[in-house]
Amino acid sequence: MTEMSAKTRKAIQTQAENLSKKVEHFTKAEIECLIQHFNSLLADQVSRGKAAHGLDRGRFRGILQNVFGLTNAMMMDGVFRCFDKDGDGTVTVEEWIRGHAVFLRGTLDERMKYCFQVYDLNDDKYISKEEIFHMLKQSFIKQPTEEDPDEGLKEVVEITMKTMDHDHDSLLSFEDFKKSVQAENLLLEAFGTCLPDPMHIKKFEQLVFQEQHEQ
């Protein structure tokens, strides 16, 4: 048992060494902790008879909801899409660590690219009025007095597009989005919460980095 543990630890150290050359924002020791945490989550998933090579959409969404406090289904699907770079329907350990580097500690530029990708629902490199409408509709709460809340929402979409569409083509490109966020950082998550707040980041890092060091 001890020999297996030593082999496993050595494998994780080698894996962390390789990933530390590709991924920014984490130390090698932190990457080791993230690998161990991923392996624990994957083992739990496998024990339920599910995919063995990566975290599936359901397991991943559960983590976003229970650990990071995200609740919007459309946003959680977008976050999964950003992590799952090869689009195979699972998040591998490398995708897990690369994704968390931006999700937890990304620069403003990295987070802008990430949020834009979440909001680009059909992955055509533009955010349309229709996409903005669908995303905001998930976030808006219908008031009892409103007869047609969609009409009010359409007005918000028009105002938003007018504000952020710098080249006036009725579509938001990444450059449009970037200029808008640089002018007003609050627009980073204009169409829905897709990044964790500082409190949830701190709790996750304490859970993963401190707990794993104690093992």
Overall pLDDT? 90
Enumerate how many helices there are, as a single number: 10
Provide the β-strand percentage band.
under 5%
Topology as H/E string?
HHEHHEHHHHHH
- How is the largest sheet built, in terms of strand order? 1-2
Q: What fraction, in percent, of the residue positions are helical?
A: 55-70%
Structural class: mainly alpha
**Rg from alpha-carbon coordinates:** 20 Å
Distance between the termini: 15 Å
Pick out the low-confidence regions: none
| Extended strand count | 2
Biggest sheet architecture: 2 strands, antiparallel
Shape: elongated
Question: Top keywords for this entry?
Answer:
two-stranded antiparallel sheet, 65% helix, 2 strands, 215 residues, mainly alpha
Please, could you describe this protein's structure?
By secondary structure, this protein is mainly alpha-helical. 65% of the residues lie in helices and 2% in strands. It contains 10 helices and 2 strands; from the N terminus they run H-H-E-H-H-E-H-H-H-H-H-H. The protein has helices at residues 2-20, 28-47, 57-66, 73-83, 93-105, 108-119, 129-139, 149-164, 174-183, 198-214; strands spanning 55-56, 90-91. Strands 1-2 form a two-stranded antiparallel sheet. The longest helix has 20 residues, at 28-47. It is elongated and about 60 Å long.
